[in-house]
Design a protein that fits this description.
Blueprint lengths: L2 H5 L4 H6 L2 H9 L4 H24 L3 H19 L9 H18 L4 H6 L11 H30 L5 H37 L7
Helix pairs in contact: 3-4, 4-5, 5-6, 6-8, 8-9
């Protein structure tokens, strides 16, 4: 079994906490200006509380969340540009998708920041370790793109489809969370089996 799978599992809790603010906003935000402002304030408070440690460490997801929702609060609550409210869902998911894929292009997929805490520094550049994190980050990028499309659909059709697209965004997020919990364990079993067949426990064997 590869050493980094044997010694630890992905630090799932930290990653999953990073998505709590997004869920909080989705639950609290309504169609009125007041509800959106309240949702943005609550989201920022939750983001600071759940991501305080990650913010201190400069992690991409936590800082992207703070900057994104602070900007939206400034635009809506301070500048009064309320026309942005109907497209806010699209803006949020577009921004998160851009940050996610940008982190891959920059060769620092955001899940890698959590995973590196759990392994020896000598494994940080291991090809298998990096591929696992690129894939996990890519899956979250795809999730954000899907939710962007779901947020856009109500504008693309003349009749109201929000009653189905809104719940679907939550189902997509839940699917991402399930994947994040399941995938490291799957890789652990896969490489454990491969190590047994080849008689070696070296990474990348």
């Amino acid at each position: 079994m590869p050493e980094f799978f044997r010694r630890t599992k992905m630090k799932k809790t930290g990653i999953l906490l990073g998505f709590v603010p997004l869920i909080v906003f989705g639950v609290l935000a309504g169609s009125s200006v007041e509800s959106v402002v309240i949702a943005l304030v609550a989201t920022l408070i939750v983001a600071v509380i759940t991501g305080f440690s990650d913010l201190r460490k400069g992690r991409i997801l936590s800082w992207a969340t703070i900057i994104l929702f602070s900007s939206l609060l400034l635009v809506v609550g301070v500048l009064g540009l309320t026309w942005i409210i109907p497209v806010m869902g699209m803006l949020i998911y577009a921004a998160l998708a851009a940050v996610t894929f940008g982190s891959i292009l920059a060769k620092i997929p955001f899940t890698l920041e959590y995973a590196r805490e759990m392994v020896d520094r000598k494994l940080w550049e291991n090809p298998v370790f990096i591929r696992v994190n690129v894939l996990m980050t890519g899956v979250w990028g795809a999730i954000f793109v899907i939710n962007f499309i779901l947020s856009y659909l109500p504008f693309a059709f003349p009749y109201d489809v929000g009653w189905i697209t809104s719940p679907l965004t939550y189902l997509v997020l839940i699917a991402g969370i399930i994947f994040t919990i399941w995938y490291p364990g799957y890789m652990q079993k896969k490489h454990s089996s491969a190590s047994g067949q080849h008689g070696t426990g070296e990474i990348g064997s």
